[in-house]
């Protein structure tokens, strides 16, 4: 239902921005556990989707890594630059160009550049973009085929857009995030932190609270790469969903032990790259659970749990990463345990 709705929205979006200089929405991507095939018990019931944005004609996006913040929760700024729209092979009417024509020459034919609408000091502003995107979604509703089947309540947020859809007793909450792809990879920068980055468990990946992230800071997300990894694994396992069942079990039955769902997910993904996939069959399910527990034990003893995407040389070739990401030293998600003996004792007791 959500996939069909978002594809309908996208078609309307593209038509709406075709004669403007606002970002161009691309194909929508489902993000997080709900779209990966498992859900932790503390899942908030919100289906999150990512709408990648491409620069409009005459503009370019350049990502700049912010030095502040933790390595495992990196943020970027998106610098917007004007680029020449002239083409040597161009036939017919000469195009107007922000760089080569004056404001007077551009005249009434030319609308404001992206720098003048959604930017702050040449950088794409998350809150301005969110406000524009919310208006775009709201004005597009009556143009999508689903409008007559669902009652919708729009819930604007400073860094995203939420829709509350209802039809009879059925209700769905969709949160639309927007972001920019890093080069041609499966890594994106997005308008707000992902599920894992928002986790507040004392034994999970810590991150900056949403309310202190600046308006021009875009958190990096690995959710698309992780989803592609799960899809890659499912095609090779004797039982295609066994890894998801194990993840579901840990996040639900062991809820309350202090380990966040993002920690369990990271450990399970590492086990999938170390235990031969031929061993992931139903009769060996209990042994695979012990493999996960054994790896968690080893990580606690070493006080080190490596980030699964950043710097991981075992990722399948079909998962595309920016060259700079491949050279990054894998961040230690348990670094805080090495620095806080009380937190380490708590983690060992929880284990």
UniProtKB/TrEMBL annotation:
Provenance organism: Loxia leucoptera
InterPro entries: ITPRIP-like, MAB21L/cGLR
Domain of life: Eukaryota
Entries under SMART domains matching the protein: Mab-21
Protein name: IPIL1 protein
Gene: Itpripl1_5
Gene3D superfamilies the UniProt entry points to: 1.10.1410.40
Cellular component terms per the entry's GO annotation: membrane
């Amino acid at each position: 239902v959500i996939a069909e709705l978002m594809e309908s929205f996208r078609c309307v979006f593209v038509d709406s921005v075709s004669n403007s200089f606002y970002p161009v929405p691309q194909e929508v991507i489902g993000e997080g556990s709900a779209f990966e095939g498992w859900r932790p018990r503390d899942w908030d019931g919100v289906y999150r989707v990512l709408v990648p944005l491409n620069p409009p004609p005459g503009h370019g996006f350049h990502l700049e890594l912010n030095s502040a913040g933790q390595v495992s929760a990196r943020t970027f700024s998106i610098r917007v630059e004007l680029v020449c729209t002239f083409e040597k092979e161009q036939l017919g009417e000469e195009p107007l160009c922000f760089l080569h024509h004056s404001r007077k020459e551009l005249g009434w034919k030319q609308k404001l550049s992206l720098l003048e609408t959604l930017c702050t000091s040449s950088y794409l502003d998350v809150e301005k973009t969110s406000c524009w995107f919310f208006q775009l979604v709201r004005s597009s509703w009556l143009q999508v085929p689903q409008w007559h089947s669902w009652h919708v309540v729009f819930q604007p947020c400073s860094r995203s857009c939420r829709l509350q859809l209802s039809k009879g007793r059925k209700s769905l909450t969709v949160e639309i995030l927007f972001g920019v792809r890093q080069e041609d990879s499966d890594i994106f920068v997005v308008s707000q932190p992902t599920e894992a980055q928002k986790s507040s468990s004392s034994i999970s990946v810590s991150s900056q609270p949403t309310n202190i992230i600046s308006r021009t800071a875009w958190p990096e997300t690995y959710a698309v790469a992780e989803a592609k990894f799960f899809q890659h694994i499912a095609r090779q396992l004797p039982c295609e969903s066994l890894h998801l069942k194990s993840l579901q079990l840990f996040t639900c039955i062991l809820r309350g032990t202090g380990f966040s769902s993002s920690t369990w997910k990271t450990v399970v993904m590492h086990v999938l790259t170390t235990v031969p996939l031929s061993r992931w069959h139903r009769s060996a399910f209990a042994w695979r659970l012990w493999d996960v527990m054994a790896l968690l034990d080893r990580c606690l003893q070493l006080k080190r749990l490596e980030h699964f995407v950043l710097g991981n040389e075992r990722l399948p070739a079909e998962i595309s990463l920016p060259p700079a990401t491949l050279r990054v030293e894998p961040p230690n998600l348990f670094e805080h345990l090495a620095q806080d003996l009380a937190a380490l004792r708590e983690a060992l007791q929880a284990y």
